Amino acid sequence: MAAARARGPAKDNATGETKSAGARRPRAPRAVKPTGTRVPAKSVPDEALSPREARRRLRIDMGREQILDTAEQLFGERGYHETGLKEVAERCEFSVGSLYSFFEGKDALYQEVLRRRSIGYWEEMERLAADPAPADERLVAMARLQVEYFRKYPSWGRLTTRVLTPGMPMLGEVQQGFRESYRNAINLEAGMIAAGQREGVLRSGDPHALARMFSSLVTAFHLMDPAVSDDPAELDVAEFLTFIAQTFAARPS
Q: What digits encode the pLDDT tens for the residues 161-193?
């Protein structure tokens, strides 16, 4: 009988880690989000998992976040077209095959990089819009929030700024998601402006038109902000916020 061929260590596709030969780990079933992002299925509550499976799930979650952090940085540095899955895998020390255990491809990874920070961004905007402070103060605070959030995550902010730049090519699904997010943001800001008009502290005019103007001004600042822009210019944040306050303040009749 021929001698059995020796096998080297195998890798766990879900975590990217090496496991000893012969030790078969159970594979967790995977669900697919509507965006095409693959994630570990969580049909079993965490408290019902065995210690081994709980550790494995934690490694999977940490691995996914590491991939997203790395991809966010590379996409921000090089752009979408100049970044490949191989570079992402090498920088976070995964195999390319392991990346496909988490994401269906480069497009899905890029969409998830944009979406991940957007969730917290939107939650902060909603929280601020619901604040009981006067509407003129909330509007200035909204501009400050957007500037500071982009600076907190500069690679994501750089990516989003490119998406906001007219004429920049976008993936179809990214463009559709961006348009929906933009409409939601305009409606939120228009509600604040309408409240400020009722309070007599914000200028008159169609609230949606003014909200679009407000959004355009904030985007213009992103495009100049040295922290996130590919083409920076000198404009102090405090000076910009003063400009916002003066532009939208109610004018004496």
A: 887 766 666 666 676 777 788 899 999 999 999
